[in-house]
Amino acid sequence: MKSTFLVVALQLGLALPLLAVDSFPDVAQLPAQAALPDPLVMTNGQRVTNQREWFRQRRPELKALFQHYMYGTLPPKPKDMHFSVDRVDKNFFAGKATAKEITISLGNTPAAPKIQLLLVIPNAHHTTALITADPSGAGALRGPGPTATAAPAMPTTFPVFLGLNFSGNHALVTDTNIALPVTWMPKASPGCVDNHATDAGRGTQVESWAIEQSIDRGYAVATFYYGDVEPDRPDAKEGIRAQLKLTNEMGAIAAWAWGLSRAVDYLVTDKDINPRRIAVVGHSRNGKAAALAAAFDDRIALAIPLQAGCGGTSPSRGKTGESVRNINERFPHWFNGEFKKFNDEPERLPFDQNCLVALIAPRPVLFSCATEDAWSNPAGQFEVLQAADPVYRLLDAGGLDARQMPETSTLSVSRLTYYIRPGKHSMTKHDWKVFLDFADQQMTGAIPFTR
Ligand code: GCU
């Protein structure tokens, strides 16, 4: 829908009341802005000067803009969604952990998509042994505040990393009991035959996820195959987007983010999980989804989008790395129809990805990059964090302390953190070590989500 009044106001910088959620100018009428837009300047040109204006006005406005012009609208959770805990193995990783396999049915009909969630939780006796052995090393177990010096308490709930995986839960561990995904899978996935997972894929991504390392550091890990929610192809009819028959188109990135929130719906009910310490993590396209999920779901306490690049953590503006046109042409199903109108003029976007990070404020965010991953524009990702920083400062949440891109392999933690390692586009055990170090420092206390 057009609003001539809004267009004129945008061009003149007039003071306007809040942007009505359904009144959006055509793309051609949006003013071009070469620099990353200031998240603290509202569509009506007014500057946000206090926390209340941020939470009451600008944040809802940005959420509406992102949904309209880029990701599509994220629907509420289905009323008839339900969970079933299908299998519990208390002797996972030779007794260090408990594995649960949970089905999250996204509706009551036989065709409704189902998330097969794998949740691996440290066993309390294992983590107690860890604290006793090294009270300073098991950061997640210390709880809020300074390092505990008294006798360690038996942890009762655990922080959790939640992330989408590319090739099925069975690929992340060697245990042969883990269920194979049943939905369509891209041919290149390890062990994939006729676009479906087979036993040949088991254990092929153990190193990328390094789940046992997280268990040893006192964190649970929850994960599911991203295609459970929405198959990664343009013509999918069996995914949530077709099933929900949405009037306002949701792209696949938003569908995956929405799926992460459905997993959070389950996690907050699990008695072994600390509902205030749910971190999302994701690599590449799944990192784009992780960032969006954290921006829209306030229950997520911390976000780590890894090498997420265009449409996630790097600027849509500029000429470095993947462009808006590149991503829309190669993956037409990832974003909505409006986003394609920015192919040749990304500078007309009324936001950039710094505004997505700002939606996560005051919660901690780590951007993790790799030097050879030019496609995801590592330098641009640093600029995105810099341009999100003012919102964190407004919320008294710290921000990005680094003044320039850190040296490779140097983790210097602040509420917004940038890390870059040598190497290629991939997720590694080393990356997970950095995630754990970041979470140890940033997810130790309840981070109040002030409004
Ligand atoms: C492609 C795509 C990227 C994406 C990546 C991935 O390279 O262009 O935007 O991040 O795939 O998901 O691995």
Description:
The chain has helices at 4-12, 51-71, 124-133, 206-209, 211-216, 240-244, 252-267, 285-296, 324-330, 337-340, 353-360, 378-394, 429-442, and strands at residues 82-92, 97-105, 114-122, 158-165, 220-225, 273-283, 302-306, 365-370, 416-421. 29% of the residues lie in helices and 16% in strands. The longest helix has 21 residues, at 51-71. It has two domains: 1-71 and 308-425, no CATH class; 74-272, no CATH class. It is an alpha/beta fold and 451 residues long. Helix 7 packs across helix 8 (285-296) and helix 11 packs across helix 12. A nine-stranded mixed sheet has the order 1-2-3-5-4-6-7-8-9, with helices on both faces. Strand 6, helix 8 and strand 7 (302-306) form a beta-alpha-beta unit. The protein contains 13 helices and nine strands. It is globular, with a radius of gyration of 21 Å. Bound molecules: alpha-D-glucopyranuronic acid. Alpha-D-glucopyranuronic acid binds at residues 284-285, 309-310, 322, 327, 330, 375.
Quick structural overview:
The protein folds into two domains: 1-71 and 308-425, no CATH class; 74-272, no CATH class.
SSE blueprint:
Elements: H1 4-12, H2 51-71, E1 82-92, E2 97-105, E3 114-122, H3 124-133, E4 158-165, H4 206-209, H5 211-216, E5 220-225, H6 240-244, H7 252-267, E6 273-283, H8 285-296, E7 302-306, H9 324-330, H10 337-340, H11 353-360, E8 365-370, H12 378-394, E9 416-421, H13 429-442
Parallel strand pairs: 4-5, 4-6, 6-7, 7-8, 8-9
Antiparallel strand pairs: 1-2, 2-3, 3-5
Helix pairs in contact: 2-11, 7-8, 8-11, 11-12
The structure holds alpha-D-glucopyranuronic acid.
